[in-house]
Design brief:
An eight-stranded mixed β-sheet has the order 1-2-12-11-8-3-4-5, with helices on both faces. Strands 17-16-15-14-18 form a five-stranded parallel β-sheet. Strands 6-7 form a two-stranded antiparallel ribbon. A hairpin with an 8-residue loop joins strand 1 and strand 2. Helix 1 crosses helix 2, helix 5 packs parallel to helix 13 and helix 11 runs antiparallel to helix 13. It is of the alpha/beta class. It is built from 15 helices and 19 strands. It folds into two domains: 270 residues, LarA, N-terminal domain (Rossmann fold, 3-Layer(aba) Sandwich), CATH 3.40.50; 152 residues, Alpha-Beta Complex (2-enoyl-CoA Hydratase, Chain A, domain 1).
């Protein structure tokens, strides 16, 4: 897919396709054209992904900084769209943003963590009415939602927001990217809770890999409440077997158009069709997932090809925690199908206030069987002990005695390398 830099779509610049591999000159041209409309003396906030996302921010952000240097912005800040994830280390931030090659003028620019649970770091910018929410969700949810966002995006602080991020299938919003880097990337708990819960109520198979979803409508409605002009860079990337990054597409410009152009390419790059279901699927979890909160993408992206009554085995010896932020609640309530989680939410004031966690518990379980139980068994082979795994309603396999080669011989078993990256469907 290629978009012209002139004519009717001058608010969108970029190119890409499943078979493309864009080089730095092409990326630089797209970045340059996308930033042309930013005037001198602007106040700019760049929003970047955290380490749980695989992308080319370390290439694109330095290019953008170099382009902006001649515009002499009066303020330039970088904000990590970490949602409720744990903060990155200084070394991880530098690697993610390509800081060692920033232009000299920006060397003193701060890279800020997003503190989603600190009211002093947030500002309220509006509300999505109960009537609108009910319409968007087809009646599944009907309460008004307050919209809060990191204070650095307030009208008194920011003229332009630059979003950098990749587009891949996602269990809550259909695809990651675009407005999702704002909500929940740099938002408060209200919209984070509600959108994740709505995604769980809808069910993964009705959401993942789709552009038009209730959550996408909601987060784009919230994005319209931000007064600053938004320039969104949406990339589509993958990795070869040796780990080499391949950039299939980059689109810069309008928030909605940039995201949708990239999603069109992502459908061709990140969705794999198997033609059948398997009794057992072994997910060799991609090593950049270091907790199950994000590593659970193995379940989200593989559950659709597992037979009812089958098994998903998540092999991830690098994982030591369910979640550094929400681990205690996960172990206390445990993973279960949405019907059971809804009952727990109704009975638990604690969980009803943390619907994001409730959604995670249901999403990992993936879906319910005909009898209302869990559709397939989930076995975790990680550094999390048997006792803790079983407390969270997962089976356990010792990673030190895990025989992958034997499983490869079973015709009813599919082994998925670098699991969590691509969506598998029948």
């Amino acid at each position: 897919m290629s978009v012209s830099a002139t004519g009717k779509r001058a608010d969108l610049f970029g190119e890409g396709s499943r078979d493309s591999n864009l080089g730095r000159p092409a990326l630089r041209e797209i970045v340059s054209r996308s930033l042309e409309g930013i005037p001198e003396g602007s106040r700019i906030v760049a929003i970047v992904p955290d380490k749980t996302r695989d992308d080319i921010t370390n290439i694109l952000l330095p290019m953008a900084i170099d382009e902006l240097a001649s515009k002499h912005p009066v303020k330039f800040e970088v904000l990590v769209a970490q949602g409720t994830h744990a903060a990155m280390t200084a070394t991880e931030k530098a690697a993610k943003t390509g800081r060692d090659i920033w232009a000299d003028w920006a060397l003193d620019s701060a890279i800020h963590d997003h503190c989603w649970d600190d009211p002093s770091e947030l500002v309220e910018i509006g509300e999505i009415s109960a009537e609108t929410v009910k319409s968007m969700t087809g009646g599944a949810y009907g309460e008004a939602v307050k919209v809060t966002v990191n204070r650095r995006l307030s009208p008194s602080n920011c003229d332009f927001v630059l979003i950098f991020g990749s587009v891949v299938p996602h269990e809550v919003a259909g695809f990651a990217g675009g407005a999702k880097y704002l909500f929940p990337g740099v938002s408060g708990r209200e919209l984070t809770n509600v959108t994740h819960w709505i995604g769980a109520l809808a069910g993964i198979e009705s959401v993942i890999g789709r552009v038009k979803t209730p959550v996408r409508q909601m987060i784009e409605t919230a994005a319209d409440m931000i007064s600053a002009k938004i320039v969104c860079f949406s990339s589509v990337v993958s990795r070869d077997d040796d780990g080499t990054m391949k950039t299939h597409a980059l689109f810069g410009g309008d928030l909605r158009k940039s995201f949708r152009a990239a999603a069109t390419v992502s459908k061709e790059v990140h969705i794999r069709r198997t033609g059948r279901k398997y009794r057992s699927v072994v997910a060799l979890l991609d090593d950049h997932y270091d907790e199950l909160w994000t590593g659970a993408k193995a379940s989200y992206k593989l559950g659709g090809i597992i037979e009812e009554g089958g098994e998903l085995i998540i092999y991830a010896p690098q994982i030591t925690e369910f979640s550094r932020t929400h681990g205690k609640q996960i172990e206390r309530f445990g993973y279960a199908p949405i019907e059971q989680i809804r009952e727990i939410v109704a009975a638990s004031p604690e969980l009803s206030q943390d619907l994001c966690i409730a959604a995670h518990l249901a999403h990992v379980a993936y879906g319910s069987a005909a009898d209302g139980g869990q559709r397939f068994k989930i076995t975790l082979s990680s550094a999390i002990s048997r006792e803790r795994s079983e407390a969270a309603n997962l089976s356990y396999a010792d990673p030190l005695h895990f025989d992958i080669d034997a499983l490869r011989l079973d015709a009813d078993t599919l082994i998925v390398e670098r699991a969590g990256r691509d969506l598998y469907i029948v």
